Amino acid sequence: MASKTHPPLMKKHSQTDLISRLKSRKILGVGGEDDDGEVHRSKISQMLGNELKFAVREPVGLRVWILISAVGFTLMAITALVFPNQLYELVFEEELSTTSISVRLYGAALLSLALIMWNGLYTAEKVIIQWTLLSEACYFAVQFLVTCITLMEIGILPNAAMLLLLSRVLFFVVTIAYYYHLGRKPKKI
To answer: What's the mean pLDDT in 169-174?
Structure first.
């Protein structure tokens, strides 16, 4: 029996055959726009999603601001816990007439906020960073109000207290600016 010889196989160059490529991509379900308007280059990227969508675009200086806040909160907390009378005298320019427990409780609250700041410094999650900034902004707003009320009750306006009030307003504005900038929707590329 004679063996039949087959003609040599012709390789099809699918890279150059545009119609074949388009048919293959249509069968795979890639190349077209999805519900979000994104065009996926492969089935894998379509299944896994676009990682740029989840990346946090941090404002310039955000990590430095959180570091400065964490260090500041930690130092103030330690000062309030260890030297409560001296801290009170520094701000209000008068001796603490009651026990120092209130200043120490203030120090404990500051230490708790400092731990939140340190956690916010090392996270990559946008929501945690936003809550960290919001906690900091709430602290600055409440401290501003409490200090104003205390100064009205005392009836004096020391320079150190004025400096404290101005710094709290400045810190509040910077923190809220970072909070809103971080919360903006990123532009599509």
So the answer is: 95
Q: How many residues does the chain have?
A: 189
Task: Identify the DSSP state of 9.
Answer: P
What is the rounded distance in angstroms from the CA atom of residue 29 to the CA atom of residue 91? 67
What are the tens digits of pLDDT across the range 79-99? 999 998 888 888 777 777 677
- Give SS3 for 39: strand
| C-alpha span between 178 and 117 (Å, rounded) | 14
* Cα–Cα–Cα angle for 126, 181, 185, rounded to 5 degrees: 70
Closest CA to 161 of 93, 100, 79, 76: 93
In the chain, the largest separation of any two C-alpha atoms, in whole Å, equals 119
Token reading at 8: 């040599």
User: What is the crossing angle of helices 101-122 and 126-154, to 10°?
Assistant: 160
Average pLDDT over residues 99-104: 84
| Cα 99 to Cα 120: distance, rounded to the nearest angstrom | 34
pTM: 0.64
Q: How far apart are CA 131 and CA 36, in angstroms?
A: 27
Q: Which helix (H) or strand (E) holds 67?
A: helix 62-82
| DSSP code of residue 15 | T
Cβ atoms of residues 137 and 117 within 8 Å: no
